[in-house]
């Protein structure tokens, strides 16, 4: 019998957003959490995304809504109205996680839980091995991911899909089956249908071996990331690579630097980038041509100019501004920052400040090279660039995103994204309330 408490330590009063498709895995997860809700006084929010590509989607969404009403669960749903030209699964995943994160902020949740299981981990690792990646990609996904103010938790990672379907049967949990999971045109489906059965014939517990494999790579990756970060400080100038300094680094670290810089453009673990693209950039760096460039997926260009290499989006237009702020300002992105008298909410769209702790007047400006912010609830500071990456803000939005600073240059708030140590709780003393809308 699966017991979710064996895989994660719950606390009294935890607030959990649950990503739920209405399939066998996520319905099992919801049922498990329902069974322990009273014991831990959990607040559960079921989050559903209608991908709007199958006729059954509306029926599934309606069932899940009624299921939540019956079980006194909060239900939140969004429908994807249209897709771009990007990879469908990559785009859908990004939309889902942006939606989930908005709910985490709305309900001030501790955790976002998804129903990824052991079979999913095997498929992900194998796909990335065949496609080509770096150590971070080869490890697949982790059981727990720290997102600063909350954690993404995958408590079913130690179980197989068959075990979860058995749980549903024994506990009379109703679920829907996605018909698109049988279509061979999707890469993951082919691994699921043809490769996994073979591996399980060899060893029925192979998912545990892959879980261990992922954990080992995670440990190694943590060490390598620390070395890569030191190297970044040595080879970067104004977000571009200084080529002669880059060439002094170990060849493995060189590739890690490139993967890291490309992560600004390709969020989903570099799903569109593989080893061939890294080799193309390295060939450009080591070529004798003083000025040259190569095109990468999604209109990204690697441009070499003498001793510098810059990665940029082909159609980039950088919009910079600096506006002194008092009570109200309309920004170039058509959003507004205004001073208000009182607000009950406590999201990243609200900032409360004590004027005695900052230097007035405030200024709203765009980001600058080397910007760092002292994060609320965290010792030390964090690069604004890394905050944008963590929050998956598109590169074409980062250069025009508003940043609020005081007259001494201290960043007090990145509206809609992150609060600094200067932000006050509702119970604290403050005399300035700002709203971003």
Detail the topology: elements first, then pairings.
Blueprint: E1 15-19, H1 24-40, E2 43-50, H2 57-70, E3 74-79, H3 88-107, E4 111-113, H4 118-131, H5 135-138, E5 144-146, E6 151-153, H6 161-170, H7 187-202, H8 206-235, E7 236-237, E8 240-242, H9 243-246, H10 251-262, H11 275-286, E9 291-296, E10 300-305, E11 308-313, E12 322-325, E13 328-330, E14 336-339, E15 350-353, E16 362-365, E17 372-374, E18 381-383, H12 384-390, H13 395-398, E19 403-405, E20 411-414, E21 418-419, E22 432-436
Parallel strand pairs: 1-2, 1-4, 2-3, 4-6
Antiparallel strand pairs: 5-6, 7-8, 8-11, 9-10, 10-11, 12-16, 13-14, 14-22, 15-22, 16-19, 17-18, 19-20, 20-21
Helix pairs in contact: 1-6, 4-7, 4-8, 8-10
What does this structure look like?
The structure is a single chain. The chain has 437 residues and is α+β, with helices and mostly antiparallel strands. The chain has three domains: 204 residues, HUPs (Rossmann fold, 3-Layer(aba) Sandwich); 76 residues, Uridine Diphospho-n-acetylenolpyruvylglucosamine Reductase, domain 3 (2-Layer Sandwich); 115 residues, Phenylalanyl-trna Synthetase, Chain B, domain 3 (Phenylalanyl-tRNA Synthetase, Chain B, domain 3). Helices cover 38% and strands 21% of the residues. The protein contains 13 helices and 22 strands. A six-stranded mixed beta sheet has the order 3-2-1-4-6-5, sandwiched between helices. The chain has a five-stranded antiparallel beta sheet with strand order 7-8-11-10-9. The protein has a five-stranded antiparallel beta sheet with strand order 12-16-19-20-21, with no helix packed on it. The chain is globular and about 65 Å long.
